[in-house]
Automatic annotation (TrEMBL), chains A, B:
GO molecular function: hydrolase activity; metal ion binding
UniProt entry tagged with the keyword DNA-binding: no
Top-level division of the source organism's lineage: Bacteria
InterPro entries for the chain: FAH (IPR051121), Fumarylacetoacetase-like_C (IPR011234), Fumarylacetoacetase_C_sf (IPR036663)
Keywords: Hydrolase, Metal-binding
Residue spans crossing the bilayer: none
GO biological process, one term: urate catabolic process
Pfam families: FAA_hydrolase (PF01557)
Entry similarity comment: Belongs to the FAH family.
Ranges of residues in domain Fumarylacetoacetase-like C-terminal: 78-301
Required co-factors: Mg(2+)
Name by which UniProt lists this protein: Fumarylacetoacetate hydrolase family protein
Length: 311, 311
């Protein structure tokens, strides 16, 4: 099952995608269910009731007619992993403890949905604004002190995530802080895919395209710490809640092709770790994160419309 | 004005404290106002209406008869500062960039209210469970790109905060991650005090007592980066929202008195930076964070009731 949230008369409604182009509006087939995905996840049998309501039906609404929004209303926690792909550890030269997930947090305000624009900081504020293509996991079943072998029972589904990062701010201190939390700097979507449809996350591949050029591509089994181990670790201290999100980390940059002028030009990189094949996100860009068998998260990048210049 | 949240028939209600022992229930004098403090802060004139509703009245309910709860319903972001007091930087030997606030995030789930127990991790999980007495700032007026000289206009008020930290988990990697986010590991309260009553935060002192012994005491002007500069910095990337909280960092440990057996015993410290005068929080302890002219935040520490042993 693929669950979307979409803009509907000034509010956000839920849908279930059927096939490549159409979806079923949840309020058409199950008006008794809550309008927020987290509220449905919090019901013991919420996802099962949703599945039953759409079973055997085909979508009568076109995806092309709606705008997809973030599907996690009021998430309690959005965790993210630093340095969880061997290729990214190698390109940064940074160290991480291989025995424990390297975790930090993001606010819901730092993410937009699949068809909303990502906002680049003004040049005067920062220039090293980077994509990070990732798999994200959404928790369905609450839990604490979860053993690794039962961790996957707590997963409600998966989505693509662009963990947009402002490197200058990230490097102000050891804690990433604001650098990972610029307003509307990242995105997730296009939908939540349930585990029965996605299968084993380690058997998929994540890739990131900027303006059509593939900039990251890595098998998800290149992760240092896998989904089950991250869930089990978190549950040692934190009670996982339905709707919590975990962004599983990003791989390194692909080596650029010989004719890739932009990817070869290190003089246009503002970050601390110049890397062939890395380009920054700039207003006007189209950035896509694709996970095979899951879908494509595609966002335009725009300049900050709220910025009125330096005082 | 001192605003509390308290447990009332299974829900949380708001009150305004008048004098040392009594308060006015907001629903008694302004039933038209929302029941959540953030909802009131989100109204342009919410605090002014609350002030008007209680003006000249004295409290008819006893603080002793109610349980104080966290007063921030569904905060959007809870920021915290690492290494913002010179005495704490000195005792850890760690480095921080003096030009920028050193920021990380906590979840609402990591905090309890003024009269709820703080939960210590089981010994098998972690032992270096530390208090951090702090001033916390709550945002009232939203804003982005806020100049330093206008930053204090965005403050709704102040409170005491215990930024309880699990050092073993904090040290697993460079990002603090789970170590700063154990469930119910910290607290804030007892109330939100508005700036007209609190005055200039730099002219106050924070202290922490464990079982009656003062373990931290520092003037708030020992901060590396002050409240106005933190607000202005955050607003470069993040749109501040009513109800956002900023914990301003903790000072170093006080040197123990000669007869202070516990404070002198470094062999009972499990953290990475043994420091005379530092003791860990343990079940049974009473921990108090006091800011002069603001109030005392007092919590009991309990063992985790949800822990059933290692499998």
């Amino acid at each position: 099952m693929k669950i979307i949230a979409y803009a509907n008369a000034g509010r956000t409604a839920l849908g279930v995608v059927t096939g490549a182009t159409h979806f079923i509006a949840v309020h058409d087939v199950a008006p008794e269910l809550p309008t927020g995905l987290i509220d449905i996840l919090e019901m013991r049998d919420g996802l099962a009731r949703l599945r039953q309501a759409v079973e055997g039906k085909s979508g009568d609404r076109a995806l092309a007619d709606v705008t997809l929004k973030p599907f996690l209303n009021r998430p309690n926690a959005m965790w993210a992993l630093a340095l969880n792909f061997k290729s990214h550890i190698a390109e940064t030269g940074l160290q991480t403890n291989p025995d424990y997930p390297h975790l930090f947090m993001r606010t819901a305000a730092s993410f937009v949905g699949a068809e909303e624009p990502i906002v680049a900081p003004p040049d005067e504020v920062a220039r090293a604004f980077d994509y990070e293509g990732e798999l994200a996991v959404v928790i369905g079943k609450p839990g604490r002190y979860i053993p690794v072998e039962r961790a996957m029972e707590h997963v409600a589904g998966y989505t693509c995530l662009n963990e947009g990062s402002v490197r200058e701010y990230q490097m102000h201190n050891r804690q990433f802080g604001l650098g990972k939390n610029f307003e509307a700097s990242g995105s997730y979507g296009p939908w939540l895919m349930t585990p029965d449809e996605f299968g084993d996350p380690q058997r998929h591949t994540v890739l990131t395209r900027v303006n059509g050029v593939v900039r990251q591509r890595a098998p998800l089994d290149d992760m240092l710490i896998d989904v089950a181990n991250v869930i089990s670790y978190l549950s040692c201290g934190y009670s996982l809640r339905p709707g919590d999100l975990i962004a599983m980390g990003t791989p390194g940059a692909l080596k650029p092709q010989p004719d890739d002028v932009e990817g070869l030009d290190l003089s246009r990189q503002y970050g601390p770790f110049p890397t062939p094949g890395l380009v920054h996100m700039r207003p006007g860009d189209c950035v896509e994160v694709e996970i095979d068998g899951l879908g494509v998260l595609r966002n335009r990048v725009i300049a900050d419309p709220s910025y009125a210049g330096v005082e």
